[in-house]
Amino acid sequence: MSPIYRYLKTLSRIVESLLIRLLLQPLKLLPVKPNRVLFTAFMEKQYACNPKYISRELRRRYGDRIELLWSFRHPERFPDLEKDEGVKVISSATFRYYVYAMTSRVIVTNTLFKPTLPRRKGMLIINTWHGGGSYKKIQQKTLDRIRRAGTGLYLSSSRAFTEETIRGSLDYKGEVLEAGMPRNDILLNPPSRERIDEIRAKIGLKPGQQLCLYAPTWQKDWVVHYNMPDYAETVKALEARFGGEWVMGYRSHHVTMYLDQTKAAQGALDLTLYPDMQELLLVCGCLITDYSSCIWDASLTYTPTFLYCTDLKEYLKKYEFYSDIRSWPYPLAENMDELKKNIASFDQAAYEAACRAHHEKLGCCETGKATEAVCDRIAEVTGMK
To answer: Which candidate, 194, 179, 220, 230, places its Cα nearest to that of 368?
Structure first.
């Protein structure tokens, strides 16, 4: 794609956004409902991540006193959500969606929120983001879209994320809540043994089996999504180092979750459509990824985590990190032999010490009370307090 084509494409998106905003201006005449909160997660594809935990806590606290809306591209994929979670499900492909959005007091998202929606006085847009720590730099075109989103509050998992991403890359001057990510509260305050056993059974683990989760990040080059480790060899290495019986699990990135996962999941439990990544992290005994920021989440519980980056040299030509990937506490391998060696030589005590130093260096803000903190802020805005 030539620079001129990219420029024209970006310009057309901006013009389109401005035109739609202009057409939607009359909706500003509708009164804002002070107790209405609209949620969206992963580009309106999932009921998940930080928005899900915030939504649940608001429902627990305020019941029917607060109106909770969830927008999806394909609401038919969530037939039981209204009954099970007490929220209203709406399609983002309808005019009704814009009416609901324009009359919401608070909007909560974990990615980008529609730049086409006119912002109005009194509306608070909360961006929880969906990655912790401070690892990958956001690409320029995404930065441009986020900057136009009109966000009024960001959540942050670390002071490094605040300074490098929010204040630095995004050039954001507004309010930041440094209390961690709501989705990580469950890792710092784990549920009962019964609930953990329930999750294990739900994903197909037998009593005594240990799960090694392989969860790669997304890349534009679809071919690299099949650069998974040799599952059988990985299981052998894990059983030799940690003992017991191990099972591999595979989880795709949310961008690719509805594509065919047959090849990538062959020889593993296909956990791509399991609704909650944090529950998988809660029950897994080991995590393998390439460049996913789920490494931050797993580090909070000191779960053994390994980087498997067979395309590292090519990746660094396309993407940037805030710090050298080899300075992170997670053992790095560029091929299968290196991965097996890293597993064989893994030292849990040394790893925990490295994670603690890493948390201190980045200025970890995870408190285990992030959900409570952001719900308190929403309560102030909506008059629930």
So the answer is: 179
